[in-house]
Amino acid sequence: MVALLGHRRAAAVAVDIAAFQQLMAETYGERDRARGLPSAIAWLAEEVGELAQAVRKGDRAQQLHELGDVLAWLASIAHQLDLGLDDAAQRYAGGCPRCGNRPCTC
Ligand SMILES: [Zn+2]
């Protein structure tokens, strides 16, 4: 039962992430591809910095805002690489990729 719930939850997350990536591709894909991967990587790094600042001294609304921006740039980079964030998330779908446990025991 626990495994089934875990599997269903993992599947739901995968669908949501793929849908988000598709939404970002429809919204910004053409412009992001024109700017290229180096630009997207630079923007991701900048947004990670802003997230770090929001975690340190921002409120919950600012933290949520920056989490969204980081996710958006991750989606852009995945799209430009023709890779899926849902496929990337599969690495952790079974718990820790090294020991396979939840919580990790390694
Ligand atoms: Zn582990």
Overview of this structure, please?
With 106 residues, the protein is mainly alpha-helical. It has one domain (2-92): Helix Hairpins (Orthogonal Bundle), CATH 1.10.287. 76% of the residues lie in helices and 0% in strands. It is built from four helices and no strands. The two termini are 24 Å apart. Mean pLDDT is 90; it is low at 1-6. Bound molecules: zinc ion. The site of zinc ion (ZN) has 7 residues, from loops. Zinc ion binds at residues 96, 98-99, 101, 104-106.
Topology:
Blueprint: H1 2-35, H2 37-57, H3 60-80, H4 85-89
Helix pairs in contact: 1-3, 2-3
This protein binds zinc ion.
Zinc ion binds at residues 96, 98-99, 101, 104-106.
Offer a concise description of the structure:
This protein is mainly α. Helix content is 76%, strand content 0%. α1 (2-35) packs across α3 (60-80) and α2 (37-57) runs antiparallel to α3.
Low-pLDDT parts are 1-6
Helix content percent band: over 70%
List the helices and strands in order: HHHH
Overall pLDDT metric:
90
Structural class: mainly alpha
Termini gap: 24 Å
The total domain count is 1
Global geometry = globular
> What is the name of the CATH superfamily?
MazG-like
Strand content: under 5%
The number of distinct helices, counting runs of at least 4 residues, comes to 4
Rg calc: 16 Å
Q: How many strand units?
A: 0
Bound small molecules, deduplicated = zinc ion
CATH class division = Mainly Alpha
Tell me the CATH topology. Helix Hairpins
Largest sheet: number of strands, sense, barrel closure? none
CATH architecture: Orthogonal Bundle
